[in-house]
């Protein structure tokens, strides 16, 4: 479960001279992230979020970075701070863009981080919520590869826990890989991660 998310972050290619301040900031933030400066990227996304209160994407990426940081975190105080911040920013993103499947997936990931940290404590609290989020997101966006792959991997983890057949989820993950091949983000800054993780899961299925 702790390998649930593998970020595939690519440089944003937008002509510099044609960029708005928002676009310039987002381009710089992604550049920092790709260079390995996750904290610098996070701080810049935070500044963009404050300057652009109607844009959900910078809030989404602050949440994603804190979600990613928490995967291998063992200190409950650090984990609580990271996931608390992730929740704060994803809540802002939800208010800006309600019923957004990409935001739903990230919300599910944040809850999943808690389950991954301590399944006995948080599995009962968040398990049903995560499943419900994925079902709603799937109804809204059945061709979104992050929706399909995240929903499939959550189902696979649950199936393994209860000792049931994971074959349907492996097939769903194969479908997700195909969807990644044809998916086109709405903007150069829209979420476009997840293909490598989906391919890894398919390989493990075989």
Automatic annotation (TrEMBL):
Q: Where is the signal peptide?
A: 1-20
Tell me which UniProt keywords the record has, alphabetically: Signal
- Note the InterPro entries from the entry: TPR-like_helical_dom_sf (IPR011990)
Q: What is this protein called?
A: Tetratricopeptide repeat protein
């Amino acid at each position: 479960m702790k390998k649930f998310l593998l970020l595939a972050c690519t440089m944003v290619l937008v002509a510099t001279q044609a960029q708005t301040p928002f676009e310039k900031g987002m381009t710089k933030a992604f550049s920092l992230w790709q260079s390995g400066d996750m904290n610098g990227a996070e701080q810049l996304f935070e500044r963009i979020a404050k300057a652009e209160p109607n844009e959900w994407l910078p809030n989404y990426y602050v949440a994603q970075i804190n979600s990613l940081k928490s995967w291998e975190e063992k200190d409950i105080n650090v984990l609580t701070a990271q996931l608390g911040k992730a929740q704060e920013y994803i809540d802002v993103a939800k208010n800006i863009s309600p019923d957004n499947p990409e935001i739903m997936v990230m919300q599910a990931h944040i809850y999943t981080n808690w389950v991954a940290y301590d399944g006995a404590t948080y599995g009962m609290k968040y398990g049903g919520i995560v499943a419900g989020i994925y079902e709603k997101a799937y109804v809204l966006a059945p061709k979104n590869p992050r929706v399909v792959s995240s929903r499939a991997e959550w189902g696979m983890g649950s199936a393994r826990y209860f000792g049931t057949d994971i074959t349907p989820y492996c097939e769903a993950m194969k479908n997700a890989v195909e969807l990644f091949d044809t998916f086109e983000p709405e903007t150069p800054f829209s979420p476009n991660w997840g293909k490598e993780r989906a391919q890894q899961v398919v390989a493990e299925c075989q």
